[in-house]
Amino acid sequence: MILKVEVLVGGYPSQCVGNGTCNFQWLTSQTPSISSVAQSGMTVTITGTGFSTTASENIVLIGSAGSCIATAASTTSITCTIGNAPSGSYSLSVNVGGKGLATNSASFSVSIPLQITSFSPNTGGGG
Predict the structure, then answer these.
(1) pTM above 0.85, yes or no
(2) Residue 86's Cα: distance from chain center in Å?
(3) Least trusted range by pLDDT, from 11-25, 82-96, 113-127
(4) What's the CATH number of domain 32-101, 2.60.40, 2.120.10, 3.40.50, 3.90.920?
(5) pLDDT for the residue 32
(6) Among residues 1, 19, 36, 86, which one has the fewest Cβ atoms lying within 10 Å of its Cβ?
(7) CA dist list (Å): 110 to 24, 45, 55, 66, 122
């Protein structure tokens, strides 16, 4: 009986090429890293190394449930717009497609203000 073993690296399945033997090498120099985070309203700019130049391959997570949609990216910078997240202060992390979770030497966070987008009824009487 031949068993198939699948190895996940940073949440991504590994790939074998060539003669079917799989060699794996992890290099610190290939791991994405975050060096700073700047926030202006609902826009966040993340500076670091090893990011994908394809914006959608940089998944920016806010806390455990929030998201920040990448709108522009280079190997050293990601700009994203905070989308779905409750108000408060949350940690920020980046998962780069094909490379895994970015490391950081400090804890970075973003603050999401309480916003009211609509209410109903929008008119009424005094009593």
Answers:
(1) no
(2) 17
(3) 11-25
(4) 2.60.40
(5) 94
(6) 1
(7) 35, 11, 19, 11, 31
Radius of gyration over every alpha carbon of the chain, rounded to an integer in angstroms: 20
Q: How far, CA to CA in Å, does 5 sit from each of 13, 15, 16, 58, 125?
A: 11, 12, 12, 28, 69
Are 77 and 52 in contact by the 8 Å Cβ rule? The answer is: no
DSSP secondary structure string for all residues of 42-59: TEEEEEEES--SSGGGEE
pLDDT value of position 86: 81
Which amino acid, residue 98?
G
- The DSSP 8-state label assigned to residue 65 in this structure reads T
pLDDT tens sequence across 8-47: 766 666 666 656 666 556 667 788 999 999 999 999 999 9
Q: Is 28 helix (H, G, I), strand (E, B) or coil?
A: helix
